[in-house]
Structure formats: structure tokens, C-alpha cells
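From the shared-data thread, chain only:
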Amino acid sequence: MKIKDLVTVVTGASQGLGKAIVREFVNEGAHVACCAREEKLISAVVEEFRSFANTGQKIFGASCDVSVADEVEKFFNEVRHCLGPVNVLVNNAGVYGPKGESEKVDFQEWVRTIEINLHGTFLPCRFAIRQMKELRRGKIINLSGGGATAPLPRLSAYAASKAAVVRLTETLAEELRDFSIDVNAIAPGALNTRLLDEILNAGPSVVGPEFFAKSLKQRDLGGVPLVQGARLCVYLASGESDGITGKLISAQWDPWEDLHQFREQLAQSDIYTLRRIVPEDRGQKW
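Structure, as C-alpha cells:
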């Protein structure tokens, strides 16, 4: 078991990828605290995973809106009381937000997306870091994805927030190097979850014909297995990945199972980061 007895927190854990991450963490022997906004759903997750957890393994869950500072602080205080100081944080909670042309979408929905995706990543980091600094080690894993690496027309709030999550990840990684706290972002790939359903339900007139067609194809082909992203989270939570920090790693495309073999090269390069491209990078001399 790669993360046995580590105290881990997973946000947005009531369904989809979040629930798959909890399952893998429980299978690997971790003590898991999970949260989501709907208390009934998160209670069902806790009950399900407690049914096959090992003797002495602790599973805790509570409702929490990760975009609200007071709720996040309360949740992390409860985690510490029930399980102990946090070793691992996975920020999975996120939404697509409003879909459509940016000048036409509801502004409050746009803002709410930033609050959930960006504030809802920063706030758990803020409270987890305080506990991790006491231990002088820790692992933070932020969910980003394709929204950060390429433009997403008609999903501007999602794209902007996920790009911001990557730069937040890189910044925290530098802040926390001296405390042996690794901070990484992951792209889990195109998943067949409720987010895909939202795109298909919105239709091509709202999300654009190209993205809609791509989503239809994803639905029909099955998408990337949830377990792939969940296993990457296990890897980044484990001691095997110690020293790998400040990176955006694709569960689908990158050779993440062997990244520890390239630890020194990664530490000295901008591989798996978002950077500005200048003319010289493309053989131009403007």
C-alpha cells in the first residue's frame, strides 16, 4: 500500500472522479476525509467506503462549500480532530459554469464558477498548508485539465479558472519547497461524467458545433477511465513522487508511473509547466 495511514482530504468527492479518487485512497490504506456540498450524497459515500475499509482505517465525510472560507476552516478543524493533521490534499471540486458566448452568459454564474474552481482550490490549500507545515511535509494535488492548456470557446469561466489553478500550483510549489510540500496539478483526461452530460444537454448552438461533436465522440468511445486519474493521484500522494513539484501532469498522455526516475531533470526544467512561447522558440527572429 503506497499511502497507508496517511491522512488525506478529497474535495468534490460525492461522485465521478472525486469518488473514484476516494476509492483508490481507501484501497491504498489511507485515512480519508471527503467533502461535497450535498450532505446526503457525501454521507452515502462515507457509508459505502467504510463497509470495506480495513480495521483501524478511518473514513470521515462532511458537507462543505469549498468556496466559503468559514466552511473550509470548520471542515479542516474537524478533519484534524477526527483523523489528525493532513498529509495529502486533493482539490477535485469543480464546475463547468455558464456555457455560451462570453458577452451573453450570466455574469453571476461566471463569477460563481471562479469562486468554486479557483477560490475552492485556494481555500483548502490555505488550511491544509498550515497543518502540513507543522509536519514539514505534505502533498497537494489540484485538478486542472484541458481547460488550462488550450482555449475553450464558450466556456470562458471554466478555462480561465483552470489556467489560474495551474499558476497557483506553480506558485505554491515554490513557496513550499523548503517545507518538503509537493504541489502538482493533474489533467485527468476527457471523462464521461456529469460535466460531459452538461455539454451534451446544452447542445451545439450553446457550446459550439465543434466542441459538441467532440463531446459526442467522447461519449460514444467511453472517455478516459476514471481510475486512470485516481491512480495518478495515488502516485503523487505517495513517497515515490517526493520532490516532483510545480508540474501539470496528464493522466492520459504522460509517463507518470516512471516520473520519479527523472526527478532531477524535472526539477531543473520547465517540462510539464505553462510558459510563454517567444519567436525564438519557433525558429523565428522577430
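The mean pLDDT is 95.
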